[in-house]
Structures are given as structure tokens and as C-alpha cells.
Design brief:
The complex is a heterodimer of chains A (303) and B (252). Chain A is mostly helical and 303 residues long. Helix content of chain A is 81%, strand content 0%. Chain A has 12 helices and no strands. Chain B is 36% helix and 22% strand. Classes of the chains: A mainly alpha (303), B alpha/beta (252).
Chain lengths: 303, 252
């Protein structure tokens, strides 16, 4: 069975050979050893398959970037897309600029996390109430959809009208943008416990609160974390968008983006964009890590 | 139109002309009357969809019968479901302690009851495992152990071994029969396996297709503990044949 793979997949086999994982397969007589070696080979192949393609693509993207900067753009228009090493030098290695970007990033992170925290509390509360009575669920749901459907830009003037243009308004934007996924996923999760388990709790006279605490909430955890990961990313976007449009108060990454764009600081602008998405990725990964700590032992296919 | 009356302290279960018609008009069971006393292990065999499970749901109070009555003490009713219904976020130990927890039994006592039950079903060494790493048979054992912690005087089994393989099923049958002998509960077991029914029970009831009625009754005379080889005894075969004929008769 493993020989089939060897024949069909040249590239990754070379990689596996290079890494030495395939040592001993040819000579090894014992079937146990072959099985183990082919397992090791499968692991190596998976690692190579996961890491290699994005690296190749990344190198390709940088290549295209250089091509556009130096070949397609005339020197006087090169400010539109500075070459990668320029961006690295000015945007990341200049302590003053990078310090400014990090400062803005930190400010936006605080706003995003505060907004997310409020969304979590509100979302859990609303989803829990909705899970307790179909009537309440039916009453609230259309309004949640409406809230979700409001384009955030359309409501920004109203928010600044009510709450001004400071931190508070940015937090409100984060809450509005991140609340819906938390409610929907938490509600879905709370309703996901199997009927047989509900029967078990009914048979043993569990009250509403016990049922919620020992059955519905634990059963909801995977869905809750799925919602959290979505909402955490959205909250970061909300913090940046809010900062960008209100444009006053403590300087966040949104205001920096606007400033760099206005002053044609291409290197700084690109560095700020890269750092913003890095923040989004970091938040996503951190919540994935927390999820694994919280429910990895029992949820998913890892035995 | 009446529900269960509980504190009769008979440690038994008794149906009296129990009937169930669902709101959509389906008549699941009709005029079912029988009693399971302490020290009796009664099995109901019947074709799929004949209302066997409905009978257990009525006995447990999960369903209200539309006619007739059920008499049972529901304080510590044992109920083993078709699925193991283990909570995936709890370890084997945590799952087995669950019912004791729901009945507000103190922590130390809970652990003691769980350890006893774990030893009884042979799950020692798996206390820290999560359900996803257990085989089907082990999940069923955990489910049995969970119910055993309550030391229920009445034990309901809703086709619990239907999803496990034949060999595991026979093992579980032997163990259940030993548990019954040891604990002396009143047992009501639902199955569509005749061999399972005859092997474990003191009495086998045959149920007709929907609407389910009891159409035949057989006493099983073998002494406990019953050896695995009992399944090859001529008397066992004769009795199984009779149950099978009654079952076929009920289909027409």
C-alpha cells in the first residue's frame, strides 16, 4: 500500500527522502518496521504538504510585488507600491515608525477586546434567555437580523451623534459588529444537546438551572468557540473601522492608516495594513488555542 | 387518563390497561396489562415500531398514557437508553457520577458509588477516559454503571445492546444477568432478539405489531447464574422456537 504512494507522489517523496524519514524502508524486512516507517513518511509528507505550498506562493507574491514596483511602475509612480525591502526598512525597522504603529495597534486591541467582552456577556445573556422560551426566541430573532443587516458605515454618524467620537463610540461599533455571531452560535449550541440527554435529565428531575449548567452550556461549548473566533476577528475590524471614521481621541491603527494614506507614506501604510491583519490572525489563533485548552480533550477527532 | 401513583413501595412496576394514542392519531400501544415484581426480569420482544419503547417512556414518566394507569416508584428509576447517552465532556468517572450528582448525593458517597459500579461492569482503569475513546460495548457498560449508582429497585432497559456486535452483546447479556442476580431489582428489558430475551429473563412477553398488545407470555425456568452454554441447551432452543412462533403469529 505504501509503495503505491511512492510511485504516485514524486515531489513529496523527494522531500521525505531529503528529511531522512524514509531511511530503512527499502532494507527493512519486518512488517512492523515498514508500517512504522510508512507512518513516519506519511507524517513528513503531511508536514511538507502543509508548509511548502504557502511558502512557495508567498515567495511568488513577493516576486510579483517586486515586478510591479520596478517593472510595471515608472519611477515617478513608484510611491504607489514601494518594493518589499523598502517597506521592511521604513515600516518595520525604523523604531519611531514601528513604535507608532505598535502604539496604534495596542490602542485598537484594547478597544476590540473591551467590545468583544461586552458582546460576550450580552450575547450569552440574550442567547440563554432565547433558549429558555421559544416565544422569546421568536420575538428577539428578527431584531437580531435587522441589527446584523445594518451596514456599519450607515450607523456610524448616528453613533457619533449619540456617544461622541471617543473610545466609547469605537467600543459601540465593536459590539454592534460582533454581537450577532455570538448570539447565533451560542443559541445553536444550547439547542444542540441530544434529546436522549435531555430525557436523562428529565428522568432524574433536574431543574432548569441544573440542566442549563450541566447539559446545555457544556454541549454548547464547541459552537460558542466557533462564534467567539468569528466575533473576535470582527471586533478587531470594528475597532479599526471606528477609529478610522471617528478619527479623534486616542490614536488607534485606523487613524494611522488614514494619516499615512493622506500623506502618501506608502511604506508606513503597507506596514500598518500588514500589522492590522497580523492582529486579526493573532486574535484568531489565540482563541483557537483557548478553545483547544477548554474543550480539546473531549471534542474533535484527536483520540 | 391517570398518571403514576408513586409511593406504593412495592418495588415493582405494573401496567393496567395502558394505552397510548399520539396526537397525530397513531395508536402505539393498546390495553397493555402486566406486572414486574422484585426479583423478576421480564423481557418484551416484538417487531420494530410496535410500541415497545413507548411502553418504557410511559413507565418512566417521559410520556403520559392516554388511557389506563402505570404504577411505579419513580424516585430512583433506572433507565438504560438505546444509546449510551454519555456526556462527551465528562470522563467515564464524571459520567458515572452524573445521576448521583443530580440526586444531590454528597461528593464522597458519589465517588464510592461510582467506583463500586465501575468495578461491577469491569471498566476499572478507564475512569479518566473520555467517551470518544471508548468502544460501543464500553460506552454501554459506562451507561449501565451510571444507572447502577442509584441502586434502582426498578430497572428499565430500552434495547440497550442493539448497536453492539454479536460477541459483545453476548458478553453484556451474561453480565446483565449476573447484575440482576446480584442486585435483585425488578427488570423490564426491551429487545427484538429472541436469544437475548430467553437468555436473561425470568419471563418473556411477546408484543404484536402496532398497536402493540401483549399476545403471548412464556416463563423461563432456568436457574441463575446462567452459563453461556445455556444457549445450546435443547430446552433453550425449544423455548426460543415457541417465542419465535408467537412472534410470527403476531405479525399476521
Amino acid at each position: 500500500m505504501s509503495t503505491d504512494h511512492v510511485k504516485t507522489d514524486d515531489l513529496t517523496d523527494h522531500v521525505a527522502d531529503d528529511l531522512g524519514a524514509a531511511d530503512g524502508i527499502a532494507g527493512g524486512g519486518a512488517s512492523e518496521a515498514v508500517v512504522q516507517a510508512s507512518r513516519a513518511r506519511a507524517r513528513t509528507r503531511t508536514a511538507a504538504e502543509t508548509v511548502l505550498p504557502p511558502i512557495v506562493l508567498g515567495i511568488g507574491v513577493v516576486g510579483v510585488w517586486y515586478f510591479i514596483s520596478y517593472v510595471l511602475l515608472a519611477p515617478e509612480r513608484r510611491f504607489l507600491l514601494r518594493p518589499p525591502h523598502q517597506v521592511l526598512k521604513v515600516g518595520f525597522l525604523d523604531a519611531e515608525v514601528f513604535g507608532e504603529i505598535l502604539g496604534g495597534l495596542w490602542s485598537s486591541t484594547k478597544v476590540a477586546m473591551l467590545g468583544l467582552a461586552i458582546s460576550i456577556v450580552l450575547g450569552f445573556l440574550i442567547a440563554t434567555i432565547m433558549s429558555q422560551a421559544k416565544m422569546v426566541e421568536r420575538a428577539i430573532f428578527p431584531f437580531m437580523v435587522v441589527l446584523q443587516a445594518i451596514p456599519i458605515l450607515a450607523i456610524v454618524p448616528l453613533i457619533s451623534f449619540w456617544w461622541g467620537t471617543g473610545q466609547r463610540s469605537r467600543i459601540v461599533v465593536c459590539v454592534i459588529i460582533s454581537l450577532f455571531p455570538i448570539i447565533v452560535n451560542t443559541l445553536f449550541g444550547l439547542q444542540s444537546a441530544e434529546r436522549g440527554m435531555h430525557d436523562l435529565f428529565t428522568l432524574h428531575h433536574a431543574n432548569r438551572f441544573t440542566r442549563l449548567r450541566k447539559l446545555m452550556f457544556p454541549a454548547a461549548m464547541p459552537a460558542i468557540f466557533a462564534g467567539l473566533r468569528i466575533s473576535a476577528g470582527l471586533s478587531v475590524i470594528g475597532a479599526i473601522v471606528g477609529d478610522f471614521f471617528f478619527g479623534r481621541g486616542e490614536v488607534g491603527i485606523g487613524q494611522l492608516l488614514r494619516k499615512y494614506a493622506n500623506q502618501l507614506q506608502g511604506e508606513e501604510l503597507l506596514a500598518a495594513v500588514i500589522m492590522s491583519s497580523a492582529l486579526g490572525v493573532a486574535v484568531f489563533l489565540i482563541f483557537g488555542w483557548i478553545q483547544n485548552l477548554a474543550i480539546g480533550k473531549w471534542h474533535g477527532d484527536r483520540a | 387518563m391517570t398518571a403514576a401513583m408513586s409511593p406504593t413501595r412495592t418495588e415493582s412496576l405494573s401496567f393496567d390497561r395502558t394505552g397510548m394514542i399520539f396526537p397525530d392519531g397513531t395508536e402505539a400501544v393498546r390495553e397493555v396489562s402486566f406486572t414486574v415484581r422484585k426479583g423478576e426480569f421480564v423481557t418484551i420482544v416484538g417487531p420494530s415500531g410496535c410500541g415497545k419503547s413507548t411502553l418504557l417512556r410511559i413507565a418512566s414518566g417521559l410520556l403520559e398514557p392516554t388511557s389506563g394507569t402505570v404504577l411505579v416508584d419513580r424516585d430512583r428509576l433506572g433507565y438504560v437508553f438505546q444509546d449510551a447517552t454519555l456526556l462527551p465532556w465528562r470522563t467515564v468517572q464524571g459520567n458515572i457520577e452524573l445521576l448521583a450528582e443530580l440526586h444531590d448525593i454528597p461528593r464522597d458517597e458519589r465517588a464510592r458509588l461510582a467506583n463500586e459500579a465501575i468495578a461491577l461492569v469491569g471498566l476499572g482503569g478507564f475512569e479518566r477516559h473520555y467517551p470518544k475513546s471508548l468502544s460501543g460495548g464500553m460506552k454501554m457498560r459506562a451507561s449501565l454503571a451510571r444507572t447502577l449508582t442509584l441502586k434502582p429497585p426498578v430497572f428499565l432497559f430500552d434495547e440497550p445492546f442493539g448497536a453492539v456486535d454479536e460477541i459483545t452483546r453476548e458478553h453484556l447479556n451474561e453480565e446483565t444477568q449476573q447484575l440482576f442476580q446480584r442486585e435483585g431489582f425488578a427488570g423490564l428489558f426491551i429487545t427484538h432478539s429472541i436469544s437475548e430475551a430467553v437468555f436473561m429473563s425470568t419471563r418473556v412477553l411477546v408484543m404484536s405489531a402496532r398497536p402493540g398488545r401483549i399476545v403471548a407470555e412464556f416463563d423461563v425456568p432456568f436457574d441463575y447464574p446462567r452459563p453461556p452454554d445455556l444457549r445450546f441447551d435443547p430446552e433453550f432452543a425449544r423455548l426460543s422456537g415457541e417465542v419465535s412462533r408467537a412472534l410470527r403469529g403476531s405479525h399476521s
